[in-house]
Amino acid sequence: MFPESRSIAKLALLLVLPAAFLAACAAAPTRPAATASAPAGLAASQTITPPATETATPRPPAPSRTPTQTPSPTATFPVAQACLPLAAVEPLAQTDFSELPTLIQSFLNSGGGLDALERSLTAIYAANPPRPVAQADLNGDGVAETVVSVVDAQVFADPKPGALLLYNCEAGAYRLVQMEFPAAGFGAPRIVHIQDINADGLNELIVSSATCGASACFEDARILGWDGVQYRNLLEGSTAELPFPDLQITDFDRDGVFDLEAASNGIGSVGAGPQRPIIRHYAFDPTVGKWLLNFETLGASTFRVHVLHDAEAALHAGDTAVAAVLYQEVIVDDGLADWIDPGRERPVLAAYAGYKLVVIAALNGDVDAAAAALKTLTAAHPTNTGGHPYVEMATAFVQGFLAGDVADGCLAAQTYAATHVEQILLPLGPMVYGYTNPEISLLDVCP
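The chain above was modelled as a monomer; its predicted structure follows.
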Protein backbone atom coordinates (compact mmCIF):
# COMPACT_ATOMS: atom_id res chain seq x y z
CA MET A 1 0.00 0.00 0.00
CA PHE A 2 1.45 3.35 -0.94
CA PRO A 3 1.56 6.15 1.70
CA GLU A 4 -1.01 8.87 1.36
CA SER A 5 0.42 11.91 -0.37
CA ARG A 6 0.46 15.25 1.30
CA SER A 7 -2.24 17.80 0.53
CA ILE A 8 -1.79 19.75 -2.68
CA ALA A 9 -1.81 23.54 -3.09
CA LYS A 10 -3.56 24.19 -6.38
CA LEU A 11 -1.73 27.10 -7.97
CA ALA A 12 -1.53 28.00 -11.68
CA LEU A 13 1.18 30.37 -12.90
CA LEU A 14 0.76 31.96 -16.35
CA LEU A 15 3.74 34.14 -17.24
CA VAL A 16 4.38 35.71 -20.64
CA LEU A 17 8.00 35.17 -21.70
CA PRO A 18 9.34 38.03 -23.83
CA ALA A 19 11.36 36.79 -26.75
CA ALA A 20 14.20 39.19 -25.98
CA PHE A 21 14.92 37.34 -22.75
CA LEU A 22 14.59 33.73 -23.89
CA ALA A 23 18.03 33.64 -25.50
CA ALA A 24 19.58 34.53 -22.16
CA CYS A 25 18.14 31.46 -20.44
CA ALA A 26 20.18 28.29 -20.15
CA ALA A 27 18.81 25.43 -22.19
CA ALA A 28 16.85 22.84 -20.18
CA PRO A 29 17.80 19.18 -20.57
CA THR A 30 15.95 17.23 -23.22
CA ARG A 31 13.22 15.10 -21.70
CA PRO A 32 12.56 11.72 -23.27
CA ALA A 33 9.47 11.14 -25.31
CA ALA A 34 7.19 8.29 -24.30
CA THR A 35 6.82 6.76 -27.72
CA ALA A 36 6.38 3.02 -27.43
CA SER A 37 9.28 1.01 -28.79
CA ALA A 38 9.29 -2.73 -29.37
CA PRO A 39 11.03 -5.22 -31.61
CA ALA A 40 10.13 -5.17 -35.28
CA GLY A 41 6.73 -6.70 -35.84
CA LEU A 42 5.72 -6.46 -32.18
CA ALA A 43 3.59 -3.82 -30.50
CA ALA A 44 4.73 -2.20 -27.26
CA SER A 45 2.05 -4.26 -25.55
CA GLN A 46 1.65 -7.58 -27.34
CA THR A 47 -1.00 -10.17 -26.56
CA ILE A 48 0.19 -13.71 -27.24
CA THR A 49 -2.27 -15.94 -29.08
CA PRO A 50 -1.48 -19.60 -28.37
CA PRO A 51 -0.01 -21.16 -31.53
CA ALA A 52 0.08 -24.83 -32.41
CA THR A 53 3.72 -24.88 -31.31
CA GLU A 54 4.33 -22.17 -28.75
CA THR A 55 7.15 -19.79 -29.56
CA ALA A 56 7.70 -16.54 -27.78
CA THR A 57 10.74 -14.77 -29.24
CA PRO A 58 10.80 -11.08 -28.33
CA ARG A 59 13.85 -8.97 -29.11
CA PRO A 60 14.77 -6.00 -26.90
CA PRO A 61 14.59 -2.38 -28.02
CA ALA A 62 17.72 -0.38 -28.78
CA PRO A 63 19.67 0.44 -25.60
CA SER A 64 20.35 3.91 -24.29
CA ARG A 65 21.01 4.75 -20.61
CA THR A 66 20.10 2.96 -17.39
CA PRO A 67 18.59 4.58 -14.29
CA THR A 68 20.83 5.26 -11.34
CA GLN A 69 17.97 4.98 -8.87
CA THR A 70 14.46 3.58 -8.52
CA PRO A 71 12.26 6.42 -7.22
CA SER A 72 9.02 4.44 -7.25
CA PRO A 73 7.70 3.13 -3.90
CA THR A 74 7.99 -0.43 -2.63
CA ALA A 75 5.40 -2.84 -4.02
CA THR A 76 3.04 -5.07 -2.07
CA PHE A 77 1.60 -8.26 -3.52
CA PRO A 78 -1.72 -9.97 -2.82
CA VAL A 79 -1.89 -13.75 -2.29
CA ALA A 80 -3.95 -16.10 -4.49
CA GLN A 81 -4.32 -19.88 -4.95
CA ALA A 82 -1.30 -21.45 -6.63
CA CYS A 83 -1.64 -22.55 -10.24
CA LEU A 84 0.56 -25.64 -9.76
CA PRO A 85 2.06 -27.51 -6.81
CA LEU A 86 5.69 -26.62 -6.14
CA ALA A 87 8.44 -28.98 -7.16
CA ALA A 88 12.22 -28.98 -7.35
CA VAL A 89 13.27 -27.63 -10.75
CA GLU A 90 16.68 -27.24 -12.35
CA PRO A 91 17.79 -23.59 -12.47
CA LEU A 92 17.56 -21.72 -15.74
CA ALA A 93 20.66 -21.94 -17.90
CA GLN A 94 22.28 -18.90 -19.49
CA THR A 95 20.46 -18.41 -22.77
CA ASP A 96 19.72 -15.94 -25.50
CA PHE A 97 17.15 -13.38 -24.43
CA SER A 98 14.76 -14.41 -27.21
CA GLU A 99 14.48 -17.89 -25.66
CA LEU A 100 13.94 -16.68 -22.10
CA PRO A 101 10.11 -16.28 -22.14
CA THR A 102 9.64 -19.88 -23.28
CA LEU A 103 12.16 -21.23 -20.75
CA ILE A 104 10.48 -19.33 -17.92
CA GLN A 105 7.11 -20.79 -18.92
CA SER A 106 8.59 -24.31 -18.85
CA PHE A 107 10.18 -23.56 -15.46
CA LEU A 108 6.82 -22.47 -14.02
CA ASN A 109 4.93 -25.40 -15.51
CA SER A 110 7.47 -27.80 -14.01
CA GLY A 111 6.56 -26.53 -10.54
CA GLY A 112 9.20 -23.84 -10.11
CA GLY A 113 8.25 -21.28 -7.44
CA LEU A 114 8.74 -17.55 -7.22
CA ASP A 115 11.81 -17.65 -4.99
CA ALA A 116 13.49 -20.26 -7.14
CA LEU A 117 12.69 -18.33 -10.31
CA GLU A 118 14.04 -15.09 -8.85
CA ARG A 119 17.26 -16.81 -7.75
CA SER A 120 17.63 -18.40 -11.16
CA LEU A 121 17.07 -15.12 -13.04
CA THR A 122 19.50 -13.35 -10.72
CA ALA A 123 22.15 -15.99 -11.32
CA ILE A 124 22.00 -15.45 -15.10
CA TYR A 125 21.81 -11.63 -14.71
CA ALA A 126 18.34 -11.46 -16.24
CA ALA A 127 16.40 -10.30 -13.15
CA ASN A 128 15.10 -6.72 -13.27
CA PRO A 129 15.21 -5.30 -9.71
CA PRO A 130 13.86 -4.47 -7.24
CA ARG A 131 11.13 -7.11 -7.70
CA PRO A 132 11.65 -9.26 -10.81
CA VAL A 133 8.86 -11.77 -10.07
CA ALA A 134 5.36 -11.45 -8.57
CA GLN A 135 2.17 -13.51 -8.39
CA ALA A 136 -1.42 -12.36 -7.96
CA ASP A 137 -4.88 -13.11 -9.29
CA LEU A 138 -5.16 -10.62 -12.14
CA ASN A 139 -8.16 -12.03 -14.04
CA GLY A 140 -10.54 -12.78 -11.15
CA ASP A 141 -10.51 -16.59 -11.25
CA GLY A 142 -8.94 -16.92 -7.79
CA VAL A 143 -5.73 -18.46 -9.18
CA ALA A 144 -2.44 -16.59 -9.29
CA GLU A 145 -1.00 -15.27 -12.51
CA THR A 146 2.78 -14.77 -12.68
CA VAL A 147 4.46 -11.55 -13.74
CA VAL A 148 8.16 -11.55 -14.60
CA SER A 149 10.37 -8.54 -15.36
CA VAL A 150 13.54 -9.48 -17.23
CA VAL A 151 16.46 -7.71 -18.87
CA ASP A 152 18.79 -8.84 -21.63
CA ALA A 153 21.95 -9.92 -19.80
CA GLN A 154 23.94 -9.93 -23.03
CA VAL A 155 23.42 -6.22 -23.73
CA PHE A 156 25.78 -3.90 -21.87
CA ALA A 157 23.87 -0.67 -22.12
CA ASP A 158 22.08 2.04 -20.21
CA PRO A 159 19.22 1.38 -19.69
CA LYS A 160 19.03 -2.39 -19.86
CA PRO A 161 16.52 -3.47 -22.52
CA GLY A 162 14.03 -6.14 -21.63
CA ALA A 163 10.35 -6.92 -21.21
CA LEU A 164 7.54 -7.61 -18.77
CA LEU A 165 6.18 -11.14 -19.23
CA LEU A 166 2.62 -11.97 -18.15
CA TYR A 167 1.73 -15.64 -17.66
CA ASN A 168 -1.92 -16.52 -17.03
CA CYS A 169 -2.90 -19.75 -15.32
CA GLU A 170 -5.20 -21.60 -17.74
CA ALA A 171 -6.47 -25.17 -17.17
CA GLY A 172 -3.85 -25.80 -14.53
CA ALA A 173 -0.86 -24.58 -16.55
CA TYR A 174 0.88 -21.29 -17.24
CA ARG A 175 0.68 -19.65 -20.66
CA LEU A 176 2.53 -16.56 -21.83
CA VAL A 177 -0.33 -14.27 -22.86
CA GLN A 178 1.38 -10.89 -23.19
CA MET A 179 4.73 -9.12 -23.33
CA GLU A 180 5.14 -5.45 -22.41
CA PHE A 181 8.06 -3.53 -23.88
CA PRO A 182 9.38 -0.11 -22.80
CA ALA A 183 9.05 3.19 -24.61
CA ALA A 184 12.01 4.21 -26.75
CA GLY A 185 15.09 4.93 -24.64
CA PHE A 186 13.61 3.47 -21.44
CA GLY A 187 14.60 0.33 -19.58
CA ALA A 188 12.60 -2.85 -19.10
CA PRO A 189 9.25 -2.31 -17.30
CA ARG A 190 9.58 -2.86 -13.55
CA ILE A 191 6.90 -4.30 -11.26
CA VAL A 192 5.77 -1.48 -8.96
CA HIS A 193 2.45 -2.45 -7.34
CA ILE A 194 -0.43 -4.93 -7.58
CA GLN A 195 -3.84 -4.09 -6.10
CA ASP A 196 -7.47 -3.60 -7.03
CA ILE A 197 -7.40 0.19 -7.35
CA ASN A 198 -10.69 0.80 -9.18
CA ALA A 199 -12.99 -1.40 -7.04
CA ASP A 200 -13.94 -3.71 -9.94
CA GLY A 201 -12.86 -6.88 -8.14
CA LEU A 202 -9.76 -7.35 -10.30
CA ASN A 203 -6.20 -6.51 -9.34
CA GLU A 204 -4.43 -3.93 -11.48
CA LEU A 205 -0.70 -4.06 -12.13
CA ILE A 206 1.31 -0.82 -11.99
CA VAL A 207 4.60 -0.98 -13.86
CA SER A 208 7.20 1.64 -14.70
CA SER A 209 10.16 1.96 -17.05
CA ALA A 210 13.03 4.30 -16.20
CA THR A 211 15.82 6.15 -17.95
CA CYS A 212 18.40 8.70 -16.82
CA GLY A 213 20.14 11.61 -18.46
CA ALA A 214 23.00 13.75 -17.22
CA SER A 215 20.94 15.54 -14.57
CA ALA A 216 17.63 13.72 -14.20
CA CYS A 217 15.92 10.34 -14.24
CA PHE A 218 12.49 9.82 -15.75
CA GLU A 219 9.83 7.12 -15.41
CA ASP A 220 7.08 6.02 -17.76
CA ALA A 221 4.28 4.46 -15.70
CA ARG A 222 1.46 2.19 -16.88
CA ILE A 223 -1.57 0.68 -15.15
CA LEU A 224 -2.33 -2.73 -16.66
CA GLY A 225 -5.74 -4.33 -16.23
CA TRP A 226 -7.24 -7.57 -17.63
CA ASP A 227 -10.23 -7.04 -19.93
CA GLY A 228 -10.99 -10.72 -20.57
CA VAL A 229 -8.69 -10.91 -23.59
CA GLN A 230 -5.57 -8.94 -22.80
CA TYR A 231 -3.91 -6.60 -20.33
CA ARG A 232 -4.71 -3.04 -21.40
CA ASN A 233 -2.93 0.11 -20.28
CA LEU A 234 -5.58 1.98 -18.29
CA LEU A 235 -3.51 5.15 -17.76
CA GLU A 236 -4.32 7.87 -20.26
CA GLY A 237 -1.30 10.06 -20.97
CA SER A 238 2.29 9.71 -19.82
CA THR A 239 4.53 10.46 -16.85
CA ALA A 240 7.67 10.07 -18.96
CA GLU A 241 8.72 13.73 -19.01
CA LEU A 242 8.55 14.26 -15.23
CA PRO A 243 12.03 14.19 -13.63
CA PHE A 244 12.48 11.94 -10.58
CA PRO A 245 8.76 11.19 -10.15
CA ASP A 246 7.44 9.75 -6.90
CA LEU A 247 4.49 7.50 -7.85
CA GLN A 248 1.74 7.13 -5.26
CA ILE A 249 -1.83 5.89 -5.19
CA THR A 250 -4.25 7.78 -2.95
CA ASP A 251 -7.82 7.23 -1.74
CA PHE A 252 -8.76 10.28 0.31
CA ASP A 253 -12.50 9.57 0.31
CA ARG A 254 -11.99 5.89 1.27
CA ASP A 255 -14.29 4.58 -1.46
CA GLY A 256 -11.83 1.96 -2.70
CA VAL A 257 -11.19 3.81 -5.97
CA PHE A 258 -7.63 5.09 -6.00
CA ASP A 259 -6.07 8.03 -7.81
CA LEU A 260 -2.51 8.01 -9.14
CA GLU A 261 -0.18 10.87 -8.32
CA ALA A 262 3.19 11.47 -9.95
CA ALA A 263 5.12 14.10 -8.00
CA SER A 264 8.25 15.31 -9.78
CA ASN A 265 11.11 16.29 -7.49
CA GLY A 266 13.04 18.33 -10.03
CA ILE A 267 16.20 18.15 -12.11
CA GLY A 268 19.56 17.44 -10.47
CA SER A 269 21.38 20.41 -11.96
CA VAL A 270 22.60 23.64 -10.37
CA GLY A 271 21.68 25.44 -13.60
CA ALA A 272 18.04 24.46 -13.06
CA GLY A 273 17.87 26.68 -9.97
CA PRO A 274 15.55 26.20 -7.00
CA GLN A 275 12.71 23.88 -7.92
CA ARG A 276 9.33 22.93 -6.55
CA PRO A 277 7.43 19.68 -7.01
CA ILE A 278 5.17 19.30 -10.03
CA ILE A 279 2.24 17.13 -9.01
CA ARG A 280 0.30 15.35 -11.75
CA HIS A 281 -2.94 13.78 -10.53
CA TYR A 282 -4.84 11.07 -12.42
CA ALA A 283 -8.38 10.08 -11.38
CA PHE A 284 -10.28 6.96 -12.46
CA ASP A 285 -13.18 7.69 -14.82
CA PRO A 286 -15.64 4.74 -14.78
CA THR A 287 -17.32 5.91 -17.99
CA VAL A 288 -14.16 5.17 -19.99
CA GLY A 289 -12.58 2.70 -17.58
CA LYS A 290 -9.29 4.59 -17.42
CA TRP A 291 -7.28 6.91 -15.22
CA LEU A 292 -7.41 10.37 -16.80
CA LEU A 293 -5.39 13.47 -16.00
CA ASN A 294 -7.38 15.36 -13.37
CA PHE A 295 -5.04 18.27 -12.75
CA GLU A 296 -1.42 19.31 -12.64
CA THR A 297 -0.21 21.76 -10.04
CA LEU A 298 2.87 23.11 -8.33
CA GLY A 299 3.68 21.87 -4.86
CA ALA A 300 4.45 24.15 -1.92
CA SER A 301 7.91 25.69 -1.64
CA THR A 302 9.95 27.50 1.00
CA PHE A 303 12.03 29.43 -1.52
CA ARG A 304 11.39 33.18 -1.47
CA VAL A 305 11.31 33.42 -5.26
CA HIS A 306 8.58 30.76 -5.40
CA VAL A 307 6.43 32.65 -2.89
CA LEU A 308 6.85 35.64 -5.20
CA HIS A 309 5.66 33.50 -8.12
CA ASP A 310 2.60 32.47 -6.08
CA ALA A 311 1.89 36.12 -5.31
CA GLU A 312 2.13 36.93 -9.02
CA ALA A 313 -0.29 34.09 -9.82
CA ALA A 314 -2.79 35.35 -7.25
CA LEU A 315 -2.59 38.90 -8.64
CA HIS A 316 -3.07 37.64 -12.21
CA ALA A 317 -6.15 35.76 -10.96
CA GLY A 318 -7.51 39.01 -9.49
CA ASP A 319 -7.16 37.92 -5.85
CA THR A 320 -5.49 41.05 -4.49
CA ALA A 321 -6.00 40.07 -0.84
CA VAL A 322 -4.05 36.80 -1.17
CA ALA A 323 -1.46 38.47 -3.39
CA ALA A 324 -0.87 41.20 -0.80
CA VAL A 325 -0.31 38.62 1.96
CA LEU A 326 2.17 36.69 -0.18
CA TYR A 327 4.08 39.81 -1.29
CA GLN A 328 4.35 40.85 2.37
CA GLU A 329 5.67 37.38 3.18
CA VAL A 330 8.39 37.81 0.55
CA ILE A 331 9.46 41.02 2.29
CA VAL A 332 9.42 40.07 5.97
CA ASP A 333 9.65 36.26 6.31
CA ASP A 334 13.15 35.40 7.55
CA GLY A 335 12.35 31.69 7.34
CA LEU A 336 12.16 31.64 3.53
CA ALA A 337 15.17 30.29 1.67
CA ASP A 338 17.11 32.27 -0.89
CA TRP A 339 19.08 30.70 -3.69
CA ILE A 340 22.80 31.53 -3.96
CA ASP A 341 23.35 35.09 -2.71
CA PRO A 342 20.74 36.10 -0.10
CA GLY A 343 22.42 39.47 0.42
CA ARG A 344 21.69 40.45 -3.18
CA GLU A 345 18.61 38.34 -3.97
CA ARG A 346 16.38 39.11 -1.00
CA PRO A 347 16.51 42.94 -1.34
CA VAL A 348 15.62 42.68 -5.04
CA LEU A 349 12.69 40.31 -4.46
CA ALA A 350 11.51 42.37 -1.49
CA ALA A 351 11.70 45.61 -3.47
CA TYR A 352 9.69 44.14 -6.35
CA ALA A 353 7.15 42.80 -3.85
CA GLY A 354 6.98 46.26 -2.25
CA TYR A 355 6.33 47.81 -5.66
CA LYS A 356 3.48 45.34 -6.18
CA LEU A 357 1.93 46.39 -2.85
CA VAL A 358 1.80 49.93 -4.26
CA VAL A 359 0.03 48.59 -7.37
CA ILE A 360 -2.46 46.57 -5.30
CA ALA A 361 -3.36 49.66 -3.23
CA ALA A 362 -4.04 51.55 -6.46
CA LEU A 363 -6.11 48.66 -7.85
CA ASN A 364 -8.20 48.85 -4.67
CA GLY A 365 -8.68 52.59 -5.23
CA ASP A 366 -6.89 53.48 -1.98
CA VAL A 367 -4.68 56.48 -2.76
CA ASP A 368 -3.52 56.87 0.85
CA ALA A 369 -2.47 53.21 1.05
CA ALA A 370 -0.58 53.54 -2.25
CA ALA A 371 1.27 56.59 -0.91
CA ALA A 372 2.07 54.81 2.35
CA ALA A 373 3.33 51.72 0.50
CA LEU A 374 5.56 53.91 -1.68
CA LYS A 375 6.94 55.66 1.40
CA THR A 376 7.76 52.32 3.05
CA LEU A 377 9.40 51.04 -0.12
CA THR A 378 11.50 54.19 -0.50
CA ALA A 379 12.73 54.02 3.09
CA ALA A 380 13.69 50.35 2.75
CA HIS A 381 15.64 50.73 -0.50
CA PRO A 382 17.67 53.98 -0.64
CA THR A 383 19.65 55.22 -3.62
CA ASN A 384 22.53 53.03 -4.85
CA THR A 385 21.05 49.80 -3.43
CA GLY A 386 19.91 46.81 -5.48
CA GLY A 387 16.27 47.47 -4.69
CA HIS A 388 16.20 51.16 -5.56
CA PRO A 389 15.29 50.73 -9.27
CA TYR A 390 11.97 49.27 -8.06
CA VAL A 391 11.43 52.43 -6.00
CA GLU A 392 11.86 54.47 -9.17
CA MET A 393 9.46 52.18 -11.06
CA ALA A 394 6.92 52.50 -8.23
CA THR A 395 7.31 56.29 -8.32
CA ALA A 396 6.65 56.30 -12.06
CA PHE A 397 3.57 54.14 -11.47
CA VAL A 398 2.17 56.48 -8.78
CA GLN A 399 2.75 59.56 -10.95
CA GLY A 400 0.90 57.96 -13.86
CA PHE A 401 -1.84 56.71 -11.55
CA LEU A 402 -2.41 60.14 -9.97
CA ALA A 403 -2.39 61.84 -13.38
CA GLY A 404 -4.93 59.40 -14.82
CA ASP A 405 -5.85 55.94 -13.60
CA VAL A 406 -4.34 52.52 -12.94
CA ALA A 407 -3.85 51.88 -16.65
CA ASP A 408 -1.80 55.07 -16.94
CA GLY A 409 0.24 54.01 -13.91
CA CYS A 410 0.87 50.59 -15.45
CA LEU A 411 1.98 52.13 -18.73
CA ALA A 412 4.45 54.37 -16.88
CA ALA A 413 5.82 51.43 -14.87
CA GLN A 414 6.13 49.20 -17.93
CA THR A 415 7.90 51.97 -19.83
CA TYR A 416 10.39 52.33 -16.98
CA ALA A 417 10.94 48.55 -16.86
CA ALA A 418 11.44 48.39 -20.65
CA THR A 419 14.25 50.96 -20.41
CA HIS A 420 15.81 49.34 -17.33
CA VAL A 421 15.60 45.64 -18.17
CA GLU A 422 18.92 44.73 -16.51
CA GLN A 423 17.90 46.41 -13.24
CA ILE A 424 14.21 45.41 -13.16
CA LEU A 425 13.48 42.19 -15.05
CA LEU A 426 16.67 40.14 -15.36
CA PRO A 427 17.34 39.95 -11.58
CA LEU A 428 13.91 38.30 -11.12
CA GLY A 429 14.16 35.56 -13.71
CA PRO A 430 16.18 32.54 -14.89
CA MET A 431 19.42 34.51 -15.32
CA VAL A 432 19.58 34.40 -11.50
CA TYR A 433 17.23 31.56 -10.55
CA GLY A 434 17.89 28.97 -13.26
CA TYR A 435 16.08 27.69 -16.32
CA THR A 436 13.24 25.98 -14.43
CA ASN A 437 12.02 29.33 -13.11
CA PRO A 438 9.99 31.70 -15.29
CA GLU A 439 10.73 35.16 -16.61
CA ILE A 440 8.98 38.17 -15.15
CA SER A 441 7.81 40.02 -18.26
CA LEU A 442 6.65 43.56 -18.97
CA LEU A 443 3.05 42.34 -18.82
CA ASP A 444 3.74 40.84 -15.39
CA VAL A 445 5.05 44.16 -14.09
CA CYS A 446 1.53 45.55 -14.02
CA PRO A 447 -1.75 43.66 -14.48
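Confidence is low (pLDDT under 50) at residues 1-31, 33-37, 51-75.
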